[in-house]
C-alpha cells in the first residue's frame, strides 16, 4: 500500500488525494504539519531533501516527490494520462503552466492569507500576486470556453493539477465570479466519480 505524506489543506497534496480517489488506489495518509517544521526533520529530508510535501512512499525504500511527478507516476496506463504523444505532451504543458504561471501567484497568495493569516510584513507581496494570478486565470478561462476539460471531453491529470488551487483561489483574494467557464469546469470536474472535497481546516 502506498503511504502519502501531506497536508489536506495543501493544493499540491490534494492533487494526489483526488487522483487516488478517482482511481480507487488504496493508501495511508500521514499528516505533516509544515508550520511546525515537520518537513525539516532529518527523517523527512531522507525522503525529500527539498523538505516539501507531498511525498509518496512507493515501497522497497523508494520515495517520489513533486506533486505533478507523483500524478504522472500514478496515472500511468489509466485514462487520466493519454498515451498518444501529442496529448501526453499537452498534459505536461498544462502542468508546467500550473507550476510556473499559476501556482506562484494563486497558491502563494493563498498560503500568505490562509496559512500565515496575512502578516503585515507580507501584505505587499500578497497584493503583488494578484495581477499574475488573474493573468493565469484568464488563460484558463479562454481555453475552457471552448473545451469541457483542458484536453477536450475527458479529464486528465492536467485538470487535477489546475483544479486543486484554482477552486480555492478565493482564499488568496481572487474573485472568480467573472470566470464563467472556469465555474462551469468546476461543476464538471466535481461530477467525476470518486470526487472528494478539499479539507478547509485541518482536524
Tell me what the structure shows.
It contains eight helices and four strands, in the order βαβαββαααααα. It has helices spanning 11-23, 42-47, 67-75, 85-115, 123-128, 130-144, 157-166, 180-190, and strands spanning 2-6, 27-31, 55-59, 62-65. It is α+β, with helices and mostly antiparallel strands and 203 residues long. The model has no long low-confidence stretch (mean pLDDT 95). Helix 1 (11-23) runs parallel beside helix 3, helix 4 runs antiparallel to helix 6 and helix 6 crosses helix 8 (180-190). Strand 3 (55-59) and strand 4 form a beta hairpin.
Topology, element by element:
Elements: E1 2-6, H1 11-23, E2 27-31, H2 42-47, E3 55-59, E4 62-65, H3 67-75, H4 85-115, H5 123-128, H6 130-144, H7 157-166, H8 180-190
Parallel strand pairs: 1-2
Antiparallel strand pairs: 1-3, 3-4
Helix pairs in contact: 1-3, 1-7, 4-6, 4-7, 6-8
